[in-house]
Write a structure and sequence with these properties.
The complex is a heterodimer of chains A (126) and B (173). Chain A has 126 residues and is α+β, with helices and mostly antiparallel strands. Chain A contains 2 helices and 4 strands. With 173 residues, chain B is of the alpha+beta class. In chain B, strands 1, 3, 4, 5, 6 and 7 form a 6-stranded antiparallel beta sheet that branches. A 4-stranded antiparallel beta sheet of chain B has the order 2-8-9-10, covered by helices on one side. The relative contact order of chain B is 0.13. The chains are: A alpha+beta (126), B alpha+beta (173).
């Protein structure tokens, strides 16, 4: 191969793979909102919507399990495309207790973000 | 190979242009960070965060109240409850505490058998907890779910208000 010819497509793919290997952890950090620099108004609204979702789930009558429910758009936050989900399932280690998990997510796939909140609930109140 | 020429080669010109573009873009970005718009956005974000901090404290107080009294059903401009004492005992029934939307302010009030007073602090917050808020309602959605909803206007903003909505699970009903 002469010095003046450009890189082959195979070499370019290798460079892309190396760059992805180094950068992918940062993409994951972005998606779990572990970079506090980007603490924006959208995050604030999403966290408030998450708290509202959890309070609604707690105010329901006692339920043993809604194992997998789908994401539904959160009312009032349609402009940022916020979707929320409530899961209720028995705790894996303590079968007498029930886990309630609320999750909100927003954004497009590779840069999507999600926040979740969990609550352990017993049948008898203290 | 090729003949040695004087001056810059093509890749040097490209590199120089790229560096120039990065420097120009960075300086424009820093000027933008110093601008009035960004400072206004930061002040507005801080204002929203302050109100949310107050609402967090209110939610904690209401959800842990020993007995929730006032909006038994429907909606109201004020809510009252009996607070949980430190020793787990109930205070006498005629002394209740609550929150009220009065004159476009959200106030922390205390009512006893004959009077309602609002000259108090709520935790670390001074007493008009939120100023400049309109259409504030406490709505009892179900027996153990309360909703606080109001529109607030940023100090210094001429138009446009923001809606704040919180749902509270009343742990002790």
């Amino acid at each position: 191969m002469s010095e003046t010819s450009s890189r082959s497509i195979f070499e370019k793919l290798i460079y892309l793979g190396i760059a992805t290997f180094f950068l992918w952890p940062f993409v994951q950090l972005w998606s779990i909102k572990a970079i506090p620099v980007f603490d924006t108004d959208t995050h604030l609204r999403a966290s408030v919507a998450l708290e509202n979702l959890m309070e609604e789930a707690l105010s329901r009558p006692y339920e043993r399990g809604i194992p997998r429910s789908s994401f539904k758009p959160v009312k009032g936050c349609e402009d940022i495309g916020l979707q929320g989900r409530i899961e209720i399932f028995p705790h894996p280690d303590m079968p007498a207790n029930v886990m309630i998990r609320a999750t909100v997510r927003w954004g497009m796939f590779p840069l999507g973000k999600s926040l979740s909140l969990e609550y352990l609930r017993a049948r008898t109140r203290p | 190979m090729s003949a040695h020429r004087a001056g810059m080669t093509v890749w040097e010109v490209v590199l120089f242009t790229v560096f120039l573009a990065v420097a120009g873009g960075a300086s424009v970005f820093f000027f933008f960070l110093n601008s009035e718009d960004v400072q206004y956005a930061q002040r507005k974000y801080e204002w929203v965060q302050d109100i949310n901090r107050v609402l967090d404290a209110i939610c904690l107080e209401v959800s842990n109240s020993a007995q929730f009294e006032h909006p038994f059903n429907g909606s109201s401009r004020e809510c009252f409850f009996r607070v949980a004492g430190d020793a787990g005992t109930l205070l006498p029934e005629e002394s209740q505490e609550g929150f009220a939307f009065v004159d476009n302010n959200l106030l922390y009030v205390s009512r006893s058998g004959d009077s309602t007073s609002n000259l108090r602090r709520f935790g670390s917050f001074e007493n008009p907890l939120v100023i400049n808020c309109r259409e504030g309602r406490f709505t009892r959605i179900s027996s153990d779910l309360l909703e606080i909803r109001f529109l607030a206007q940023a100090p210094g903003a001429f138009s446009g208000s923001r809606e704040f909505l919180r749902r509270i699970n009343l742990r002790n009903r």
